[in-house]
Amino acid sequence: MGNRAGNPLAARFTDMTDSARRATGAGPPREAATHCPYCALQCGMTLRETDGRVAVLPRWFPTNQGGLCQKGWTAAELLDHPDRLTTPLLRDRASGKLRPASWEAALDRVVAGIHTVQAGGGRDAVAVFGGGGLTNEKAYALGKFARVVLRTRHIDYNGRFCMSSAAAAGMRAFGVDRGLPFPLSDLGTADTLLLVGANPAETMPPLVRWLAEQRRRGGKLIVVDPRATATARLADLHLQPLPGTDLAVANALLHIALAEGFVDIGYIAGRTTGFDDVRRAVAAWWPARAEALSGVPVADLEETARALGTAERTIILTARGAEQHANGVDTVTGYVNLALALGLPGRDGSGYGCLTGQGNGQGGREHGQKADQLPGYRRIDDPADRAHVAAVWGIPAGDLPGPGIPAYRLLESLGTPDGPKALLVFGSNPVVSAPRAARIESRLRDLDLLVVVDFLRSETAALADVVLPTAQWAEEDGTMTNLEGRVLRRRALREPPPGVRTDLEILAALAAALDEGPVRSSGVDRGSSIAPEPRVVFEELRRASAGGLADYAGISWERIDDRDGAFWPCPEVDGPDTPRLFADRFLTPDGRARFHAVQHRPAAEEVCAAYPLHFTTGRVLAHYQSGTQTRRVPALRQATPAAFVELHPDVAERLGVTDGEPVRVVSRRGEMVAPARLSPAIRADTVFAPFHWGGAARANTVTNDAVDPISGMPEFKICAVRVEKVNAT
């Protein structure tokens, strides 16, 4: 492969042909060059199967250069896990328990349920909920299945809980949403790197090699986080604001940059619009005001602004800590404004970006899982976009449904008089991951039909009427798009276990079973609309995305293999891809970036006498998302066996709580119980809990379901709570 020449690690592990990977019986070990199934870094790895046992081996790839975190090294342990689902499950109507069933019986139950629900409530009575870990092919097919086969407007996905605020801010500022508009390696060359609400040392550890490279070159790392995380401990400067005040910090930094002459007037005049409104808005954010609100000292704000404004190469990155708020779009916009004022986007080695979280969080939001989007980042309410995609799909544009509603509103509406009565879930576990999770669990129980497609019995699957077993990442081919916008190839090592189907095969079977013949109004055969082969789906995706913002038309599987991936947009087969965006113009109609004046506003729920502490959530090193996978891996479970509540020692002393003692965190929505972990790394007015567990330790029972009015992002990162000793009366 092109980027691997002369690399000894690359030479050691080579790609295998499909026939070699699919071979059965005795013989030499089988190998597949693929990518980790977890985060959006999508680290390269090699899988080797010997005598039925699969091992993870290092593989050189530009993003991770052979490194993996503990999650990646242990990823293959789930392939043959005893909890693996290998047969469909149906809820027995007499006993109420899930029982093994045949595929025929399971599909019959799903089809009959959908027909009944839509006959009584119309097409929108059925909803689809996807995931940011699905391959591009599956995300595309799921959106097509919802709109062509089910003809429902109700589809959204769990990426709404991850990237939606950064995506909306990027779209309105730059005209496009690509997490990093430059290669990840640029981080290592930055003179100043500002991370806002990001903890990659725990969420994507191999990325830390680029932070180390940045420090080795003499660069300055600044981290903004309410906790002294593992990443903050690497920083030259750590700003520790009150949760929910990141926008005040951003406006104060721009205020200082203006006062001290760091803004790039020529760039602003030549490449942007709207700066005068922003200038007036940040005039009121003098550093002392920001300090009084956020707790960040004036001296630290000034040091940060000077480091950003005087460096030759400066990068500003945001992540979930800044984005998962009811004002998340405005908060990200504040940091985009700062980057634009300094003239960073499009400048070599500089810019603004956001760190995508889920494995295909980027590709998963580009190809039709979002309620308002069609493939290629086309808008479902744009007539030209509708016409293009409808032509690829072979249906009249008028047959496409209109926009749906964002994920939390969709989940909250389930089973209500005006909401969907059936839900199909692919690659998500909202019982654990949704805000105000007890309410969402109740909504799921109110459905007439809940279908979950998964390879493990998640908390959501445990509530289902039908559970369909699906293949894992090492058992199917496809593509992913990582946090850089680099399209990658996922390669199968082996076939799924007997009785297990891929998601594409399940969608194709459902489409065929649901079809009652050509639709009379248009003569469209919808039963064969979903292809079960990922390469066929990808070729269709290329046509559907052609001319869109996320244009994959020039990306083939062969091109990906030859060049360690390809960056979108890539409109021509023989033309270049786009590792770096914005060099000459932004993707707005006039080519200029847009400033937007934004002001801090309080969290949706402020502390009071009854709920005197701020509650925030996040991830820990050993676990991922809702923990359905990682909590089943012995080494990861041993590293972090259970949830915890992180408290400042001063808070614990007031409560009479000792380290390891169970505590109850109570909000207006519910409570969680977990052992206390005392740490001076957190602010004394804030408590933290990881969100990887269900049951009594479910952090999202507590979190607030207030949402950003633009993105639909819930306010995961701040709400008001009290903490009690479990034995307190």
Outline the structure in words.
The protein is α/β, with parallel strands linked by helices. 30% of the residues lie in helices and 17% in strands. A hairpin with a 4-residue loop joins strand 19 and strand 20. Strands 5-4-18-17-16-6-7 form a seven-stranded mixed beta sheet, with helices on one face. A six-stranded mixed beta sheet has the order 24-26-25-28-23-27. Strands 10-9-8-12-13 form a five-stranded parallel beta sheet. Helix 6 crosses helix 15, helix 9 packs across helix 13 and helix 9 packs parallel to helix 15. It contains 25 helices and 28 strands.
Name the descriptors.
729 residues; alpha/beta; 7-stranded mixed beta sheet; 6-stranded mixed beta sheet; 28 strands; disordered N terminus
Distance between the termini: 65 Å
Average of the residue pLDDT scores? 94
Q: Which descriptor suits the 3D outline? A: globular
List low-pLDDT spans. Answer: 1-25, 517-521
Provide the helix percentage.
25-40%
Number of strands: 28
Q: How much strand content do the residues show?
A: 15-25%
Class of secondary structure makeup: alpha/beta
Our Rg estimate from Cα atoms comes to: 25 Å
Largest sheet: 7 strands, mixed
Assembly state of the chains shown? single chain
Number of DSSP helical runs: 25
Q: Strand arrangement, largest sheet? A: 5-4-18-17-16-6-7
SSE map:
Blueprint: H1 8-12, H2 18-21, E1 30-35, E2 44-50, E3 53-58, H3 70-73, E4 89-91, E5 98-100, H4 103-121, E6 126-130, H5 136-150, E7 155-157, H6 164-174, E8 192-196, H7 200-203, H8 208-216, E9 220-224, E10 237-239, H9 246-259, H10 265-271, E11 272-273, H11 275-282, H12 287-294, H13 298-310, E12 314-318, H14 320-323, H15 328-341, E13 351-354, H16 361-364, E14 373-374, E15 378-379, H17 383-393, H18 407-413, E16 422-426, H19 430-433, H20 437-445, E17 449-454, E18 466-469, E19 478-481, E20 486-490, H21 503-514, H22 534-545, H23 557-563, E21 566-567, E22 593-594, E23 613-618, H24 634-639, E24 645-647, H25 649-655, E25 662-666, E26 671-678, E27 686-690, E28 719-725
Parallel strand pairs: 6-7, 6-16, 8-9, 8-12, 9-10, 11-22, 12-13, 16-17, 17-18, 23-27, 24-26
Antiparallel strand pairs: 1-2, 2-3, 4-5, 4-18, 14-15, 19-20, 20-21, 23-28, 25-26, 25-28
Helix pairs in contact: 4-21, 5-21, 5-22, 6-15, 9-12, 9-13, 9-15, 17-22
